[in-house]
Amino acid sequence: MNKNICVFCSSSDHLPEKYYKAAKELGNAIGNSGNHIVYGGTNVGLMHASALATKQSGGKVIGVIPELIQSKGIASDYADELIVTTDMKERKEVIRDKSDAFIALPGSFGTLEEIMEVITLKQLGYHTKAIVFVDVDGFYSALKTQFDMQYQEKFANESFRQLYTFVDTAEDAIDYIYSYTVKDQVAKWD
Fold first, then answer.
1. What is the model's pTM?
2. What are residue 6's DSSP bridge partners?
3. Structure confidence by residue, pLDDT tens digits, 99-114
């Protein structure tokens, strides 16, 4: 069954090549497995690399872009569906509604904000979808350490580790999404 897989990632065109390579590998893995990408709707950075690779591998590209960013002239010109929203809040809601799973490639503040929001919403019971970090060349190692500190110091219940996973490759991310099953978890305030 086809899945709409959201990819959160950088919109920068000025990154080391290893990150573009990883983005293309993920796009290829999404398209080659018969799935589709839901992403931020631009033609720049890792967003562009992953979306274009998905398209070239036979997947559908669904872009969701706010008016402000579209007005900068960087909207995708190859998306099968390009949804223009009034603002970032609406963009994130549309992306969440259209997606069956979420993957974070390396990125900056926006990427972290978006993936952390879907983790928080899952923790609160608003959805039960798979969430995956692709840890390209240790990019997310410091974040994993921060998460461990939250568990160690009792800011987060150990059961919340099952809300997400870290993997090393695009193939591992797709495999995780297909093998993912919803698990019972401790509610935030139980």
1. 0.95
2. 38, 102
3. 999 999 999 999 999 9
